[in-house]
């Protein structure tokens, strides 16, 4: 069945029906693409006939399937199981005919392109190594080539492309303001990717959505990972160079006026510390990214290659008892805590999720981080914000898919 997305979900029978169908699809998406009918009914808190109508609409459109044989409630499906607990119920799943989106995650050293379906399920991934190069056009051609490859092999309708970039991204037009770690000037990223897809009939005219990598990772962790059910989630992460962040505020990604919000890497973590590219000193980014850990361990000898991997080795050595590596891990952990304290005072989160190297640092050296956080934030002392590691292996990629799926779930 070819999905029919030409009319609004819920048909023409009124806003309530449309809302129920969209809410049901969103609930199914947040549950990873499969849930029993009883679980969905309990979560949506509406009548059986309303659920039946919404389900039949979604089935007709080829978006979901309903198993004919009743199932026991899914294990670990959460508190939403409610009234259906213990009783068999029909299993609702994302249909194999449902549309896909294509997600792109460009890092300083790798390019990932993946197909995703509703539920946040990754269907296929292509990864290529990237050399730091000022040649924007070449990288855009590579993105275009991989998107076309993934789209052709998926053999399912594609409804959008989401792109994650290591740069603040303007919300109105997908302009990447400062992809400095790529050695790029500001670029009209959305227009460039759109142009790459223009001569492929299946992809021409598809909406292209662009976002900042850490913002998108925050979004993904909130929907599918360690930030589930948090209302105000602060996400802080580091991969190759620098530190990024994102904020979920009242359940939604906080973007600021232009989309540039949450450049948390320039929060002061060590007054008078290392000079930062932003002009200040002692920013979280210069005190707690992979370079900072390598510097603290006396291992920052080749500053641009394999930083993340070599920083991970420092943490492995610290865990194994190497005293220099241990001291480095403790120092950087304390700096992360000091930076988080500033952010907690500003943002009052109910959960902090740490990604990338910071998640590993949390596992190896949790104590200096929590001490500095307690000392630096009177708010944190009052409410004891949980600090947890990210749960998704590729959160920015999942977040790019979320961006592209959002119109279907809106
Ligand atoms: Zn800075």
- Written as H for each helix and E for each strand, in order along the chain, the element string is HEHHEEEEEHEHEHEEEHHHHEHHHEH
- Overall number of domains: 3
Strand content: 15-25%
Helix content: 40-55%
Largest sheet: 5 strands, mixed
Q: How many beta strands in the DSSP annotation?
A: 13
What shape does the CA trace take? globular
SSE layout and pairing:
Blueprint: H1 15-30, E1 34-36, H2 37-44, H3 48-60, E2 64-71, E3 89-94, E4 100-106, E5 110-117, E6 121-129, H4 136-154, E7 158-165, H5 189-197, E8 208-212, H6 213-224, E9 233-238, E10 244-249, E11 252-253, H7 284-288, H8 290-296, H9 307-319, H10 323-347, E12 351-356, H11 357-364, H12 366-376, H13 378-383, E13 387-389, H14 395-409
Parallel strand pairs: 4-7, 7-8, 9-12, 12-13
Antiparallel strand pairs: 1-3, 2-3, 4-5, 5-6, 9-10, 10-11
Bound molecules: zinc ion.
Residues 266, 276, 278, 280, 283, 285 line the site of zinc ion.
Descriptive account of the structure:
This protein is an alpha/beta fold and 410 residues long. The chain has three domains: 15-94, Arc Repressor Mutant, subunit A (Orthogonal Bundle); 100-215 and 396-409, Nucleotidyltransferase, domain 5, CATH 3.30.420.40; 228-391, ATPase, nucleotide binding domain (Nucleotidyltransferase, domain 5, 2-Layer Sandwich), CATH 3.30.420. Helix content is 41%, strand content 19%. It contains 14 helices and 13 strands. The chain has helices spanning 15-30, 37-44, 48-60, 136-154, 189-197, 213-224, 284-288, 290-296, 307-319, 323-347, 357-364, 366-376, 378-383, 395-409; strands spanning 34-36, 64-71, 89-94, 100-106, 110-117, 121-129, 158-165, 208-212, 233-238, 244-249, 252-253, 351-356, 387-389. The strands form three sheets. A five-stranded mixed β-sheet has the order 6-5-4-7-8, with helices on both faces. Strands 11-10-9-12-13 form a five-stranded mixed β-sheet, sandwiched between helices. Strands 1-3-2 form a three-stranded antiparallel β-sheet. Helix 1 crosses helix 3, helix 9 crosses helix 10 (323-347) and helix 10 (323-347) packs parallel to helix 12 (366-376). The longest helix has 25 residues, at 323-347. Bound molecules: zinc ion. Residues 266, 276, 278, 280, 283, 285 line the site of zinc ion.
